[in-house]
């Protein structure tokens, strides 16, 4: 059943229960994990037995001719910073290595209720802090397109799993680009919904005012299907907005004629790889050819977004990660006889260097004497970034930009210089600061590595973003490319 | 902005992170260059600009005052590195002593 | 010239909710350790807080009862510090910080000490979550943590340094507790920890700027607040009079030894790094909401006292006693509703009933007597079924058995003897047995008749109608009718 792997769900769904069973589909994916994950290393935990049991249950329902939920039998992976009841959830950190949550994240529960089958938990930069998955406390994930390259991050495991056919779709989390950037680097589709569209309950917090859960998939239609399943208000998350969820699948085919696409000039300046620039501008021309009206817009605060983001994200993280102290759960350093030592040693041994760096940066930004100049200043600049976007969206319906300044980089290439690593997210970060929906779709290759086009919309207009992405995808073939590893 | 190893040590204590001498030096230099880059924010005037702490403008999200079942104590104990008769155990905490 | 005492209080009050501040765990006291916890109040990764609406409403009630200005929007903040009873290592609290006001500010509460009315200003009222509880087993190198209390809704009330004596501090706490109980915001019991109080104390020469203050903690009753403050004032006075300087520090009250001592100072100054809680959206109190809370606010003690004086014609002293707790005032008004004899009912309540409560250290809601039973007792006296003297015995029996006064009177055969024929026999017997007093009476010593009346009452176990006995004796001894 190898030919099942690497095909989008919406193509497989009509054949489900006819040409193959859920069990066969899930087994095909489990076999592919078996075959490839030794090289890709996308997974921290594979839940094969649970997956097979769940598949069997769905097949039984099929046999009884029960109506099946929208994602029935979709083999999915979930980033390991989403809580799964009874399945270890590490956040890629040694400090949570023994942690088995007693509850499910709302998004995970909704995926399951929609019939998706959980294959396992994917690798990430520790606590989602990173852009290459090299900050995982366990091991680095490889880019399936080229194994000596990073898959991006922090949802690198989820992106690599989808690209390598080790999952049909996956959930990631995106605080500053952590879904879109690895989607771009791995040649898959990745969407960060509007802040408040998907419940964060059960998502282990990195930066609470920026974090959002979203799907990674082979194409835009699958992305819309998963988004539809996980969206909507959750009484457990005060910041999940109580708005009706529009049918984002039904509106996919509405086209882009007359739609205004803005190209923010600042996103095409210094630091952008010429090959990426060419691919993205070509994609914009494709949209124009489909009837969209393209115009230049300005986002002058772009150069301030990166420091703003890191100050806010690290400040929130320094507080969010204070709870990992060895007291009630997780790792505890052995042999500490007083409280301070228990805390300081548990955290010193449990956290990796990037997490420590960010905790200290955030603690510094909030501490007495620095709050006004750093944290509050960043919050004010955040307001200005938002206003920039508001101004753009008075003129245009979506923005088109590169997702990442480069098509990819090698493992180890940026680990010595944290600032260089931070710059990998320079185009995705402003979108989180403003809480907007953004998607990355494949739009070409540079030196055999995929390139992503980022489309950004107004708050809660995921439908528009998806519709433009779908129109683009239908007019091109990039989303049909599979990595050589999977083909081989 | 120069971050000295002393500032790193103060921040590390506030963050409950035990650092080695080497880490202190590395973090001091890395945080210095990061904050140097971040200093570009000073170029942007923000006098009188309202700070944004939430990405959405929503107020008054509440839950009703209803009791829902708690976790079984076994689950709490199972997560704890050390437990005793339903309590989580920590090294002796010194409260008010003369 | 003596020093002026300057005291400010910081009070934490547990709100009367069923569930916790940010999750649905029960707030019930006394459950086995860690049986009332969930991902939220354990601070598990990924969990998120959601505000208990009732807690906000109770905060608003208190704010109104304390004459505060309620802010149209307030925002929760994180107060960051490490302690094992604080599972997230930050406390979610509505701190006044920069541009973010707490729930309410700038109120006051009037107190009366030695007949003098004083206004104590309230600086702020805000909401926060409680911490877990640490248990220190007597021996060994460990402490135990119970998270049942983690996340229980608390309200913090901070006064200005307006109190001028330990006695005023006590009066303020009594009044605050009374108001909170009336408003049904909290049970306000320091002994049970639903009201906790820390105090800032300093001394100064009148007219001079505030002196250096100490913070006194660990006081477990209103009485211990008064004692601890008196101790601390005396200690500071002694330091100053010796020419020394008061050290700004936290001092621990030791109830047993009756002293305060400096607790070991933290290694470094706290830096709580407050910032807006990103997981919670702002609380917006619209004028409509506030009006709704105002409308449903129960009558407060001062207003109730004034009304009871006017409506039932009672004096201020009695009325003040009757409104001391809401339960007492409710009891009184329920009894009056059953039998409209407010003065008699008030007399019983501030007299025998209050004495009984004092003697047994009980609250009125713990008594077995109902307002209806007290009303019945008063009615039995007023319609002559029993004497006032018997009524006292009946009351004791009601309090002990919970039985109705009527049934007790019947069972005991305590119905007043108003039957002339039956009493005449007793009168005859008394006259026969006490010739000397009889002679005295007949010789014009009218006072001796009281002795004879007493003898008749004794032989009838107090059941005889005293007026009737008096009349029969006078007739029999040939005296003119009384008065």
Strand order in space, largest sheet of chain A = 1-3-2-4-6-5-10-11-9-7-8
Give the N-terminus to C-terminus distance of chain B in angstroms.
Answer: 42 Å
Indicate the low-confidence ranges of chain A by residue numbers: none
Strand content of chain A: 5-15%
Supply the CATH class of the domain at 5-43 in chain B.
Answer: Mainly Alpha
Enter the CATH topology name of the domain at 5-43 in chain B: Histone, subunit A
Counting DSSP E segments of at least 2 residues, the number of strands of chain A comes to: 11
CATH architecture of the domain at 5-43 in chain B: Orthogonal Bundle
Radius of gyration based on Cα positions of chain B: 23 Å
Helical segment tally of chain B? 3
Shape of chain B: flat
Average pLDDT, all residues of chain A: 97
CATH fold description of the domain at 2-252 and 470-476 in chain A: Amidase signature (AS) enzymes
**What does the radius of gyration of chain A come to?**
21 Å
What's the CATH superfamily of the domain at 5-43 in chain B, by name?
Glu-tRNAGln amidotransferase C subunit, N-terminal domain
Please mark out the parts of chain B with pLDDT under 50 across 5 or more consecutive residues, or reply none. none
* Oligomer category: heterotrimer
Order of helices and strands of chain B: HHEHEE
Describe this structure in words.
With 488 residues, chain A is an alpha/beta fold. Helices cover 38% and strands 13% of the residues of chain A. Chain A has a domain at 2-252 and 470-476: Amidase signature (AS) domain (Amidase signature (AS) enzymes, Alpha-Beta Complex), CATH 3.90.1300.10. An 11-stranded mixed beta sheet of chain A has the order 1-3-2-4-6-5-10-11-9-7-8, with helices on both faces. The longest helix of chain A is centred in the C-terminal third of the chain and has 24 residues, at 372-395. The radius of gyration of chain A is 21 Å and the shape is globular. Chain B has a domain at 5-43: Histone, subunit A (Orthogonal Bundle). Classes of the chains: A alpha/beta (488), B alpha+beta (98), C alpha+beta (483). Chains in contact: A-B, A-C, B-C. At the A-B interface, helix 9, helix 10, helix 11, helix 12 and helix 13 of A face helix 1, helix 2, helix 3 and strand 3 of B.
């Amino acid at each position: 059943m190898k030919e099942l792997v690497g095909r989008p769900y919406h193509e497989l769904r009509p054949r489900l229960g006819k040409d193959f069973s859920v069990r066969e589909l899930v087994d095909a994916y489990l076999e592919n994990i078996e075959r490839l994950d030794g090289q890709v290393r996308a997974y921290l935990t594979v839940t094969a037995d649970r997956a097979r049991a769940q598949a069997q249950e769905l097949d039984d329902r099929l046999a009884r001719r029960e109506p099946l939920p929208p994602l029935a039998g979709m083999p999915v992976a979930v980033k390991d910073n989403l809580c799964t009841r009874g399945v270890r959830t590490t956040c890629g950190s040694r400090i949570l290595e023994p942690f088995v949550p007693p509850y499910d994240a709302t998004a995970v529960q909704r995926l399951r209720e929609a019939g998706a089958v959980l294959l396992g938990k994917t690798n990430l930069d520790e606590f989602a802090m990173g852009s290459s998955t090299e900050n995982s406390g366990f091991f680095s994930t490889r880019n399936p397109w080229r194994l000596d390259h990073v898959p991006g991050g922090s949802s690198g495991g989820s992106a690599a799993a989808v690209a390598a056919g080790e999952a049909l779709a996956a959930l990631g989390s995106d605080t500053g680009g952590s879904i879109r950037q690895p989607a771009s680097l791995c040649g898959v589709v990745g969407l960060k919904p509007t802040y408040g569209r998907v419940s964060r309950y059960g998502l282990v917090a990195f930066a609470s005012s920026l974090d959002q859960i979203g799907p990674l998939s082979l194409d835009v239609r699958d992305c819309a299907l998963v988004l539809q399943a996980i969206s909507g208000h959750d009484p457990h998350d005060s910041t999940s907005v109580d708005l009706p969820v529009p049918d984002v699948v039904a509106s996919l085919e509405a086209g882009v004629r007359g739609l205004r696409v803005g190209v923010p000039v600042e996103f095409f300046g210094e630091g952008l790889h010429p090959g990426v620039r060419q691919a993205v501008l070509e994609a914009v021309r494709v949209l124009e050819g489909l009837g969209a009206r393209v115009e230049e817009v300005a986002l002058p605060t772009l150069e301030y977004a990166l420091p703003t983001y890191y100050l806010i994200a690290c400040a929130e993280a320094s507080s969010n990660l204070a709870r990992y102290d060895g007291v009630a759960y997780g790792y505890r350093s052995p042999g500490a006889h007083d409280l301070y030592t228990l805390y300081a040693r548990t955290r010193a041994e449990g956290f990796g260097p990037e997490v420590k760096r960010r905790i200290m940066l955030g603690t510094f930004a909030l501490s007495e004497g620095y709050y006004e100049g750093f944290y509050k200043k960043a919050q004010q600049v955040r307001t200005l970034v938002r206003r920039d976007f508001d101004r753009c969206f008075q003129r245009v319906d979506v923005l088109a930009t590169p997702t990442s300044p480069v098509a990819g980089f090698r493992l180890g290439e940026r680990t010595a210089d944290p600032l260089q690593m931070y710059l990998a997210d320079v185009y995705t970060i402003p979108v989180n600061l403003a809480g907007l929906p953004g998607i990355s779709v494949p739009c070409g290759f540079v030196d055999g590595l995929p390139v992503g086009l980022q489309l950004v919309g107004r708050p809660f207009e995921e439908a528009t973003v998806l519709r433009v992405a779908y129109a683009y995808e239908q007019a091109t073939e990039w989303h049909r490319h599979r990595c050589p590893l999977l083909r081989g | 902005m120069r971050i000295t190893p002393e500032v790193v040590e103060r921040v590390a204590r506030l963050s409950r992170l035990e650092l080695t001498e080497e880490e202190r030096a590395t973090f001091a230099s890395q945080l210095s260059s990061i904050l140097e880059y971040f200093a570009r924010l000073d170029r942007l005037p923000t006098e009188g600009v309202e700070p944004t702490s939430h990405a959405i403008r929503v107020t008054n999200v509440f839950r009703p005052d209803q009791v829902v079942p708690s976790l079984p104590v076994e689950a709490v104990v199972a997560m704890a590195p050390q437990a005793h008769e339903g309590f989580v155990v920590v090294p002796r905490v010194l409260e008010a002593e003369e | 010239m003596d020093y002026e005492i300057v005291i400010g209080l910081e009070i934490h009050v547990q709100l009367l909710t069923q569930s916790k501040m940010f999750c649905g765990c029960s707030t019930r006291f006394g459950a086995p350790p860690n049986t009332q916890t969930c991902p939220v109040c354990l601070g598990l990764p990924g969990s998120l807080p959601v505000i208990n609406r009732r807690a906000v409403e109770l905060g608003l009630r208190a704010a109104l009862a304390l004459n505060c200005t309620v802010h149209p929007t307030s925002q929760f903040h994180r107060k960051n510090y490490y302690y094992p009873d604080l599972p997230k290592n930050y406390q979610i609290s509505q701190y006044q910080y920069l541009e973010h006001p707490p729930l309410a500010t700038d109120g006051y509460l009037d107190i009366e000490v030695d007949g003098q009315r004083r206004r104590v200003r309230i600086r702020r009222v805000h909401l926060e979550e409680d911490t877990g509880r640490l248990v220190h087993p007597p021996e060994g190198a460990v402490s135990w943590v119970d998270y049942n209390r983690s996340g229980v809704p608390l309200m913090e009330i901070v006064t200005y340094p307006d109190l001028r004596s330990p006695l005023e501090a006590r009066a303020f706490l009594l009044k605050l507790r009374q108001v909170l109980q009336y408003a049904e915001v909290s049970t306000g019991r320091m002994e049970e920890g639903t009201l906790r109080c820390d105090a800032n104390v300093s001394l100064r020469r009148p007219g001079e700027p505030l002196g250096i203050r100490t913070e006194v903690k660990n006081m477990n009753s209103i009485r211990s607040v008064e004692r601890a403050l008196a101790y601390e004032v005396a200690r500071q006075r002694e330091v100053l009079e010796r020419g020394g300087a008061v050290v700004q520090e936290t001092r621990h009250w030791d109830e047993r030894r009756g002293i305060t001592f400096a607790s070991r100072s933290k290694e470094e100054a706290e830096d709580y790094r407050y910032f807006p809680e990103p997981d919670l959206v702002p609380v917006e109190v619209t004028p409509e909401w506030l009006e709704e809370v105002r409308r449903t606010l129960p009558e407060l003690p001062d207003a109730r006292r004034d009304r009871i004086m006017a409506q039932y014609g009672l004096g201020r002293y009695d009325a003040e006693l009757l409104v001391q707790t809401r339960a007492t005032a409710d009891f009184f008004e329920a009894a009056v509703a059953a039998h409209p004899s407010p003065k008699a009912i008030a007399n019983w309540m501030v007299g025998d009933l209050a004495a009984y409560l004092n003697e047994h250290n009980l609250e009125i809601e713990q008594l077995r007597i109902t307002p209806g039973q007290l009303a019945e007792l008063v009615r039995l006296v007023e319609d002559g079924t029993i004497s006032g003297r018997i009524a006292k015995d009946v009351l004791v029996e009601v309090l002990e058995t919970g039985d109705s006064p009527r049934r007790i009177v019947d069972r005991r055969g305590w119905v007043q003897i108003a039957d002339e024929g039956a009493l005449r026999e007793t009168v005859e017997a008394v006259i026969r047995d006490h010739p000397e007093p009889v002679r005295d009476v007949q010789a014009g010593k009218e006072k001796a008749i009281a002795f004879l009346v007493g003898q008749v009452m004794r032989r009838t176990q107090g059941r005889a109608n005293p007026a009737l006995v008096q009349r029969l004796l006078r007739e029999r001894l040939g005296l003119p009718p009384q008065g």
